[in-house]
Amino acid sequence: MYYKFSGFTQKLTGSAPTAAYSPQGLRPGVPAEAPPMIFASPTKLVSEAKTVEYAVTNRVPDLQKLFQIPDGVPIHLKRGVPDRLLYRTTMALTIGGTLYCLVALYFAAQPNKK
């Protein structure tokens, strides 16, 4: 048996196979006319564009050369002061958070004084 949602009773009701496969809100077919153009001016293809204003130089080859130098510095510290600052800040926050959790667990383990 086939079922169809009834908009009147807001329940599923039995129906014929053709009605079950054609929902109420959908109509088969193609629109009679083409939709209107959205853009007033013609659009340019990518090949027609001369330069892109927001494009910057590609730094990937320079960074690849920097990261492949075998100088003994760990990869997360290769770019100098900003990397060291981020690394040390991350380590300080990690150690501080661990100590804070241990202190909180210590206080939570103490019996209540009534």
Overall outline: flat
Strand order of the largest sheet: 1-2
Terminal-residue CA separation: 70 Å
Strand content: 5-15%
**Portion of residues in helices?**
25-40%
Q: Which structural class matches the secondary elements? A: mainly alpha
Query: Which stretches of 5+ consecutive residues score pLDDT under 50?
Result: none
The overall average pLDDT, rounded, is: 80
Number of helices: 3
What gyration radius follows from the Cα positions, in whole Å? 33 Å
Order of helices and strands: EEHHH
Largest sheet: 2 strands, antiparallel
Q: How many beta-strand elements?
A: 2
Pathway: Energy metabolism; oxidative phosphorylation
Keywords: Membrane, Mitochondrion, Mitochondrion inner membrane, Transit peptide, Transmembrane, Transmembrane helix
GO cellular component, one term: mitochondrial inner membrane
Organism: Pagothenia borchgrevinki (Bald rockcod)
Task: Explain what this protein looks like in three dimensions.
This is Cytochrome c oxidase subunit 7A2-like, mitochondrial. One of its GO terms (cellular component) is mitochondrial inner membrane. By secondary structure, the protein is mainly alpha-helical. It has helices spanning 17-20, 60-67, 81-109, and strands at residues 2-5, 12-15. A two-stranded antiparallel sheet has the order 1-2. The radius of gyration is 33 Å and the shape is flat. The termini are far apart. The model has no long low-confidence stretch (mean pLDDT 80).
